[in-house]
Specification:
The protein has helices at about 15-30, 35-40, 50-75, 85-95, 100-120, 125-135, 135-155, and strands spanning about 45, 50. By secondary structure, the chain is mainly alpha-helical.
Amino acid sequence: MTAGGSPRGVVNVDAIESERSRWYELIGLVRSLSPEECLEPGYYRDPAWSVRDLLGHLGTWLAEAEIQLQQINAGTYEGHALDIDALNAEFLEAMRDQPWEVASVQAHAGRTRLLQEWQDLTSPDDEATWWIRKSGPDHYDEHLDRLREWVQELVSRR
């Protein structure tokens, strides 16, 4: 039950587990690095991203999805005709000079809020599913292979 006494939303347990397992793998890789290693550019080369930039990127997408799920829950959602490359550039610029701690906290908070809104969905539709997958498990999958390689490279330099 929610605080107002209404039943919580219907959530696919397999989808939640998919998101959770990928997030924990991603965060486990990040936590295997020192704070200095998390700031080293090279995760991506063009543009030059660090692990901090990756977390900022993921966190901003999670926060955006949370907003969109809020709108879906409120019945005010207007669709998602987006320019993903433009949003990526906007999100990267917004987080570019943030300290490591801010990027990390923002990513964790974005995920927490997304999970809360996801839990409150009363009837997940295709739009909600798209936002969840785009910002969550599918998005993590887009970055996990390169993150594994980058972590291995950084650890081998120690």
